[in-house]
Amino acid sequence: MGLRLPHISWNSIRFKLVAGLLIVTVPLITLLIYNNFYSIHVVHNQVASSIKNLISLYEGQIDTQLQDADRNLLSLVTSDYDIRSMNTPNSEDEYQLAKHSVSVKLSSDIVLYKSVDAFYVYSQSRQDLLDVFKASVTFPERDQVEQYLQRLLSEHPNLAEIRGSWFVQKIGQDYYMLRVIQSGDLYIGAWVNAKTLLIPLNLINLGNEGSALFVTNQGELMVSTNPLVDENIDFSKSFQQFYISGSKNNLLIVGEPSQKGDFNLVAVIPDKQILQNLPSLTRIIEVISLASIVLIPISLFFLRHILLVPLKRMIAVMRRINNGNVNVRIESYPASDEFLLVNQTFNRMMSQIEELKINVYEEQLSKHKAELQHLQLQINPHFFMNSLNILFNLAQVKNYELIQEMTLCLVQYFRFMFRSNLTFVMLREELQHVRNYIRIQELRFPNSLTCTIDSPDFLENIPIPPLVIQTFLENSIKHSVTLDESVHISVAIDLMETGLEPYIEIVIRDTGKGFSEDVLAEIRSGNRVVDEQGEHIGIWNVRKRLQLLYGEHAAISCYNGFPSGAVIEIKLPYQSER
């Protein structure tokens, strides 16, 4: 079974108070939080912009130095006589002399290029490598790079066509930027260790945990000034804008791509190092925001305890009163003085209302009882006149046996009528009275009236209003029975359980000519019916009595049967034996 949320009206005080509190506090907290994040964003922008300018400056210097080295190499290729002699020597001596001259020239040039560790010339046909190093290059490093260059240039003769600029290559444990220019049989180039390019970057103040580093275009770390505080940093994004990375998204990444090679200069700065210079106002905002978030449930708790709970109790009591329970009161409980006064006044007022309602109810009961007795007695004079008429007719024909039977039936009939001022009688008593009444009518209309009564035994002790069935039988006999044509009347009583609550159904049918359309219209509208055959007071009388006894829980339906005859359906609420 799903969870059902309590229904709260938008017009209730509870909703307005809680909504008002949230409308005031939530925008303020949101504004504070937004201001805090905006301040952080502004600081990020300022720091990133400053670092970006510094990184761009250093990257521009590196690119300029690499470009100068490029120009020097291109100058050797296009205009140096010794390079041309090494490329197409006339003799081995000429090749060696040219090689010596190139070595001397490169040795003098290399001191001019701080961003280059070595120049080299490689003859593919002779598998001969000439290289010139700076003094800072160690022999193991030199040997390692030479072996790699010889292997690379011998295995990839078209490398210069593919590599049109400085490219990154990992040799051993270090990363190098290499340049290759092909001229006939010769490969002329330069290389530099990434650590060499990183030396000037140590002058950049990025804090104790900040770091400047080189990464490849694929995001692979080459070398850094300080060990990285987080290994889960993504360097594969574009460096057009700064971004936040790291396993906790707490590192500011600023980079600048090289225009001369497939590498990038990047600065990594921890977020806490950036924000430590923020004004103390930011921290105050954080404290206020956090305190406001904590105070919201506390405020709601006190609001609920002081105002909403007393209101809820009052509303619960008023709903019960609205359902007719005027004997309920607001229980005593600790509350504010105002609510205590309201509760006491309300309870006192409800006591007075209950007392007044009891008095009015007793008066209404007396009035209803008098009205019921009056309605029940309305039938007696009418039947009394009919009974005297029957006795008169029997006396005229001197049928003393029937006069005795008729007199006995009348005694039983009037004995029941004298106690008919009761509100309810047992169904068996009502049916016994009905049979006695039918016998009187059979004596009045011999061979013209028959009647059958069908009622289950388990309903014989069910209470029903007196004279309900007899009234409709009397109405059928009055308007249907004649000496010319016999009429059959049937009474069927049963317990129906088709709806939410069981009810007693009484169906009375006759084989007469039935109701006219005008009479049915008047009956259904609840009016008294008067036609050429007289006034149908019985139907209106019973309906009025049932309304007084049951309210809307009882019903009477009148219609014509097929092929003829009148049908009366009476539905009474099922009441247990009492």
Would you kindly provide a written description of the structure presented here, covering whatever features stand out?
The structure is a single chain. The chain is of the alpha+beta class. 52% of the residues lie in helices and 19% in strands. The strands form 5 sheets. Strands 2-1-5-4-3 form a 5-stranded antiparallel β-sheet. The protein has a 5-stranded antiparallel β-sheet with strand order 7-6-10-9-8. Strand 6 and strand 7 (221-224) form a beta hairpin. The model has no long low-confidence stretch (mean pLDDT 80).
List the helices and strands and how they pair.
Layout (H helix, E strand, L loop, with lengths): L12 H67 L1 H7 L4 H19 L7 E6 L4 E6 L5 H17 L3 H4 L4 E5 L2 E10 L2 E8 H5 L12 E6 L4 E4 L18 E3 L5 E7 L5 E8 H5 L4 H43 L14 H41 L1 H19 L2 H19 L6 E2 H18 L4 E6 L8 E2 L3 H13 L6 E10 L6 E8 L6 H8 L4 E3 L2 E3 H14 L4 E6 L5 E8 L5
Please describe the biggest sheet, giving its number of strands, its sense, and whether it closes into a barrel: 5 strands, antiparallel
Radius of gyration: 57 Å
Number of separate helices: 15
Q: Roughly what fraction of the amino acids lie in strands?
A: 15-25%
Q: Helix content range of the residues, please?
A: 40-55%
Kindly report how far apart the N and C termini lie: 40 Å
Q: How many DSSP E strands?
A: 19
Segments where pLDDT lies below 50 for 5+ residues? none
Adjacency order of strands in the biggest sheet: 2-1-5-4-3
Structural class by secondary-structure content: alpha+beta
Shape: rod-shaped
Averaged pLDDT = 80
